[in-house]
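request received
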Amino acid sequence: MRLLLSALLRKPLRTLLTVVSIALALFLYCFLESVLYAFNVGVSMSSASRLVVQHKESLAFQIPISYRSSIRQCEGVSAAVPMVWFGGLYKPKDATGEVREEFFAQFAVEMQEYLSIVPEVVVRDREQLRALLADQAGCVVGDKTAERLNIRVGDRIVLRSQIWNQPGNKPWAFNVRAIYTSDSPSFDRTMMLFHYKYFDEGREFGKGMIGIFLMSIQNPDRFQEIATAIDRRFENSPFETKTVTEKAFNMQFVQMMGNLQLLLRSIGSAIVLTMLLVAANTMMMSARDKTREMGILKSIGFTDAYVFRLLIGESLVVAALGYALGAGLAYGLFNLAEVNPKPDFFPIFTMPREALLGALGIAALTGVLSGIVPALAGMRLKATEALRSV
Amino acid sequence: MPEPIIQLRDCTKVYHKGGERILPLDRLSLDIEEGDFVALMGPSGSGKTTLLNLIGGLDSPDEGGLIVCGQNLAELSPRGLARWRSRHVAYVFQSFNLLPVLTAFQNVELPLTLMPLSKAERRRHVETALRIVGLGARMHHRPDELSGGQEQRVAIARALACDPRLLLADEPTGDLDAQSAQEVMDLLTALNREHGKTIIVVTHDPKVAQCARRQLHLEKGVLARDTASEPARRGGA
Ligand SMILES: Nc1ncnc2c1ncn2[C@@H]1O[C@H](COP(=O)(O)OP(=O)(O)OP(=O)(O)O)[C@@H](O)[C@H]1O
Ligand SMILES: [Mg+2]
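response:
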């Protein structure tokens, strides 16, 4: 099939443009799928053995830490960790002396118990772990954030919370005692965790109130039963609760983004579709130019089936090149070079395997659809007609 | 006496054009002997191309039948016909015979790829064919780097490469200047004389027709005249 490749080279520029436009469309598709995956990755990183107790109405409301002991008493519950969303901004000076504003997720937690029920958080250095537990003003930072913002063990970092004040509007200072990583590829490695006690003592208002309890249960199959028991316990109290699985909890955030996702998906699909149509159109046109050549091939003794394979093969090759280029670029960028276009927003940004397969499907479809019409026409073409047409 | 290489029996071809019936071939019968060199002449629209296409199996008659190279073409499937064509017949058209993306060498090699030949064997055939047409030095040029006459010679080389028994040429000199036309005709004459190919050339040019041994005149789909010309130039038989 050297003939085939030669045919592609016939108009190298046109072929190149077609390949590039397919590649671009597929790259866009892969990027979009990665964004959507990044939105949803929180859901997939949840553990089935963890539940979350939150305020019944909304996450915007707090619940009292005093619930902790009652929750722990519930049958089947092995731990209940208070967690508070801190919402702080980190403003380091960069090399030029300019102050930047950086964001990453921070939580005040009951450290020891948190680490025991979230084994995904791994502090490799025992010494760091000991220091973290010993220092009330200590904190542990995910390695991705540490790397991004150049934070090291022993640093003192200052945050300004958009929610929590200290008396006299004093900024919050923490000692970085440890860096955590994770063995689970879908676990968030961008968080900062610090001691609830230090936080509660420091804050000016809202003392004793927390955002959620993260609970661990012994038997994940019994979660419904346990959730109902807890919520019933606080029924008719001033702070009614809603207990959900960690997965359902994370899903709430995804659902808040629901419309955005839909919008992204529709815009993206429209762009991808347009580019593919353009590419398909170009391929069909290039095939139409070849009528005469197909006639010659047939007069030489090439069969109709050969002509069919030749034309469809050509568009498949173009589509395959576009796929290799587009999906390859996305894979290299997001999965090998681990480029994250918005690290403070997406803790995890990789292209899921499904995107690679999806792009392959789209490429194959483009190749077949744009090749099938000219290929069928070429196959049916009578040599006598083709040769007369000049 | 050996069987004629081409036997046409009452071949009719009908086209319908806007309710009008056109008969490019009207119950035509014709025998052509192996090794003959035939010039097919006649006014435009008289059915010359149609006849050539029937003989080469590119088209089939609506009535009647034909046996070419001992094969009744009506018995072949389209696929079988394509294979048969690749083995026995070669075409040279008036122009645009070559695939523009391929070099002269590759164009000549094309029909050989349909045969069970090794790469080395193919190369040998191609080189021989190109040498016969006097283009051994231009093997790696592409069609747009060749003159019209050279292009036609490459087309003839391609026709030769598979060693077909029958060579069909439809106005091969139609687009050429007198000098190139003469070269092409000399080449065809040599192929006929020295290699024993049966050749049918469609032409409007009486000078070209002079090179042939037999001249057929078609008119409105029927044979108007059938003359054996004196083997013109170069003395000969
Ligand atoms: N596919 C077709 N549909 C309709 N009519 C056709 C078709 N092919 C050929 N014809 C008609 O058949 C007749 C013979 O055509 P043909 O091409 O055989 O003539 P020709 O002798 O080769 O003419 P020219 O010297 O101009 O090449 C013409 O009147 C032509 O219009
Ligand atoms: Mg004609």
